[in-house]
Design goal:
The complex is a heterodimer. Helix content of chain A is 25%, strand content 27%. Chain A is built from eight helices and 17 strands. In chain A, the strands form four sheets. In chain A, strands 7-10-6-1-4-5-11 form a seven-stranded parallel beta sheet, sandwiched between helices. A five-stranded parallel beta sheet of chain A has the order 14-13-15-16-17. In chain B, strands 11-10-9-12-8-1-6-7-13 form a nine-stranded mixed beta sheet, sandwiched between helices. Chain B has a two-stranded antiparallel ribbon with strand order 2-5. A two-stranded antiparallel ribbon of chain B has the order 3-4. The radius of gyration of chain B is 21 Å and the shape is globular. The chains are: A alpha/beta, B alpha/beta. At the A-B interface, helix 3, helix 4, strand 7, strand 8 and strand 9 of A face helix 3, helix 4, strand 9, strand 10 and strand 11 of B. Strand 12 of chain A pairs antiparallel with strand 11 of chain B, so a sheet runs across the interface. Bound molecules: flavin-adenine dinucleotide and adenosine monophosphate. Flavin-adenine dinucleotide (FAD) binds next to helix 6, helix 7 and helix 8 of chain A.
């Protein structure tokens, strides 16, 4: 069964979650893996996809695809599935990937699973495990149709940089006006920052930080750790931090190697966004804070004293 | 007048402990409070604001069995005009989306609002599937939705920021904060909800390509290791040499 993998890029680099999708496809071992990228992307970046498991790389370089227009992307990917004779489409969950997965699946009559967390079990049928109840549980689903679309959660596969570069094949496309009824007028995006959903380490602050003026020390800590910064819902509600940094049930669900929670009490709705983290460190002045029950490491104390010391200690250890 | 459809889920309260019965094949509803999905609540709140500002009828729809009717009544109490329940277990996203698309096709809505995702299955796909089925654009997660006649200005959250879009009605949107403030039903709303129409329709049959076989709970977390506040270096040591995350 041939597999098509849709790769996304940000600021000219292929997203790490897309490399995971490629590795996932390769580790499935069910057939040839073709990567496809849309819009203008650096050719060297695309060639390097070979190292992560792509046997072939298609590139639809049309400028019109620089904006992630969901319907246009759907048309191109549905067509590529057909041209490549692919049965399986794999991509990373994202604000673009997930709706595109859903629309392609509908268009080509595929079984669809999003939030997939591990490789399929093909011993009888094709079963994938997906995260449900906002990380509080998992479900195993059998995908029955010949064609399948999988949208992966972060860490669904471990990337391996093994193979070698491949040549990029231009993929010509014809788009119609109906693909572009949605117009992106502008976008406001943090640049040069590590994106929260992609980050390996997250430093997150809650109401215990007292005010936006105190975020500097969390940013310093994040910097030495190459971490993204996050926050609790009240913090973004009060406008201390932008909404896209809000972690939890009603915000971003993160799955980093390490989540450091500072001055966050650990309400169940906050935990829902962080319970896929590998390790959790909680720093809180209240020894009874519920977050300690979900933590691996904890320090009871005043964040304003501990954070600068922690930053120094990490610097020293590096 | 503009017709708005709001699709709502009937889901466990966000504080619920999740458990399963029947050998991990059935969700355990004992002790669980059910609510309108929090994101669907934003969609409903925005629909009602639009009704108040520009005039519209608001229909709420749920695909579910009879036990979801109190949730639909709650939406009526908050201000929806009428409700539709498609009488079926919502087995998978394609099934649910087919029912919504079918209803929308026969009733012709100008705007279909949903939540960005349900909080039971979190798939975040039903709006996109309905959009594809109806040949309409779908936009999610929408943080701002302003209408000027048939023209909409939208802000959509993306990784690390937001995107400003323009689009004409009709379309499908998955909503999230801060699109509107959650609304609470008042006494008059609760009284009038009792007599507002709630229509029950039978589902269209769908051949399902996705079968849920089993649930699983994550392994319990081990005990937390506490480190004294004056030994920050010890934490760094553990993160480096025990957890291997530095
Ligand atoms: C439907 C619904 C959805 C929700 N979704 C989310 C969500 O997605 N994300 C989310 O985060 N919340 C969400 N919430 C809100 C959630 O219930 C909590 O109210 C919120 O998480 C609390 O934020 P907090 O921990 O920052 O604040 P608080 O609960 O006020 O906690 C502050 C903590 O800081 C500690 N502290 C104070 N001073 C210091 C100091 N100097 N040093 C160290 N520690 C200090 C205190 O001991 C306390 O534990 C939701 C709620 C509802 C009802
Ligand atoms: N059973 C259902 N009945 C009505 N609407 C639903 C149902 N399931 C999902 N939806 C709508 O689709 C949105 C996205 O759901 P999901 O794709 O399951 O994450 C929800 O926020 C609802 O608005």
């Amino acid at each position: 069964m041939a597999i098509l993998v849709f790769v996304e890029s940000a600021e000219g680099k292929i997203k790490k979650t897309s490399l995971e999708a490629l590795s996932y496809a390769q580790q499935m071992g069910s057939g040839p893996v073709t990567a496809i990228a849309l819009g203008e992307v650096d050719i060297a970046e695309l060639e390097s996809l070979g190292k992560f498991g792509a046997g072939k790389v298609l590139h639809a370089a049309d400028k019109k695809l620089n904006d992630g227009i969901i319907q246009a992307y759907t048309s191109v990917l549905a067509k590529a599935m057909q041209d490549e004779n692919a049965d399986i489409l794999i991509l990373a969950n994202s604000s673009l990937g997930t709706p595109v997965a859903a629309r392609v699946a509908t268009k080509i009559g595929a079984s669809l699973a999003s939030n997939v967390v591990s490789l399929p079990d093909t011993s009888s049928g094709f079963t994938v495990k997906k995260s449900i109840y906002t990380g509080k549980a998992f479900a195993f689903v059998d995908l029955k149709n010949q064609k399948k679309v999988l949208a992966l959660r972060k860490n669904a596969a471990v990337t391996k940089d093994a193979g070698s570069n491949v040549a990029v094949t231009p993929y010509p496309i014809t788009l119609t006006d109906s693909d572009f009824v949605t117009q992106i007028i502008s976008s406001e995006k943090a640049t040069g920052e590590i994106l929260l959903p992609e980050a390996n380490i997250v430093v997150s602050g809650g109401r215990g930080m007292k005010g936006p003026e105190n975020w500097g020390m969390l940013e310093d800590l994040a910097k030495v750790l190459h971490a993204a910064t996050g926050c609790s819902k009240p913090v973004s509600d009060m406008g201390w931090r932008p909404h896209h940094e809000h972690v939890g049930q009603t915000g971003v669900k993160v799955a980093p190697q390490l989540y450091i929670a500072v001055g966050i009490s650990g309400a169940i709705q906050h935990l829902a966004g962080v319970n896929s983290s590998k390790y959790i460190v909680v720093i809180n002045k209240d020894p009874e804070a519920p977050f300690f029950k979900s933590a691996d490491y904890g320090i009871v104390g005043d964040a304003f004293e501990i954070i600068p010391k922690l930053t120094e200690a990490i610097k020293a250890a590096k | 007048m503009m017709k708005i459809l709001v699709c709502i889920t009937h889901v466990p309260d966000t504080t619920s402990k999740i458990n399963f019965t029947n050998n991990n094949t059935k969700f355990d509803t004992s002790g669980v409070q059910f609510i309108i999905g929090p994101y669907d609540d934003y969609a409903l709140a925005r629909a009602i604001e639009l009704k108040e500002s520009s005039g519209a009828t608001v229909t709420v729809l749920n695909v579910g069995l009879a036990d979801t009717e109190p949730t639909l009544r709650k939406a009526l109490a908050i201000g929806a005009d009428d409700a539709v329940r498609v009488n079926a277990e919502p087995v998978d996203s394609l099934f649910v989306a087919t029912q919504i698309a079918d209803h929308a096709k026969t009733n012709g809505y100008d705007l279909i609002l949903m939540g960005r995702e349900s909080i039971d299955y979190n798939s975040g796909v039903v709006h996109a599937i309905v959009g594809e089925m109806l040949g309409l654009p779908s936009v999610s997660p929408v943080m701002k939705l302003e209408l000027d006649g048939k023209h909409a200005k939208i802000a959509r959250e993306i990784e690390g920021g937001k995107e400003n879009l323009e689009i004409d009605l009709p379309f499908v949107a998955g909503c999230q904060e801060p699109i509107a403030e959650w609304k609470i039903a008042n006494m008059r709303g609760i009284m009038s909800a009792r007599t507002k129409p709630l229509k029950v329709v039978e589902p269209k049959s769908v051949e399902s390509g996705v079968v849920l076989t089993k649930f699983e709970l994550p392994p319990p977390k081990g005990a937390v290791k506490m480190i004294p506040a004056d030994k920050v270096g010890e934490l760094v040591n553990l993160l480096k040499n025990e957890a291997h995350v530095l």
